[in-house]
Amino acid sequence: MAISARNGIKGTVESVKLGKVMASIKIKVEDPALITAVITKESAEDLDLAVGDDVSAIIKSTQVMVAK
User: Fold this and answer.
1) Cβ contacts of residue 68 below 8 Å, gap of 6+?
2) pTM to 2 decimals?
């Protein structure tokens, strides 16, 4: 996957909370840091995100996206 963002931080999914429209994904990065990304529920389901998955938090401007 090619992407224009240059700020990617590798981590592990610590929790996935699905709402009706949005999802909150907590990503554990270097101890003791934790990043929370709020993405659409559809995106979380399309990525099939689950606790323990290795992911990257991709930071672009004021948004944090999730790549798997």
Assistant:
1) 47, 48, 49, 53, 54, 55, 56
2) 0.77
Mark 43-65 as b/e (b = at least 16 C-beta within 10 Å): ebeebebeeebebbbbbeeeebe
Amino acid at 20: K
- What is the CATH T-level fold of the domain 7-67, as seen in this structure? OB fold (Dihydrolipoamide Acetyltransferase, E2P) (2.40.50)
Here the tokens at position 24 are 């909150």
Say if CB 66 and CB 53 are below 8 A apart. no
Q: Which two tokens stand for residue 63?
A: 């948004």
List, in sequence order, every residue forming a beta bridge with 38; answer none if it has no partner: 24
Per-residue pLDDT reduced to its tens digit, 27-60: 999 877 999 999 999 999 999 999 999 999 988 7
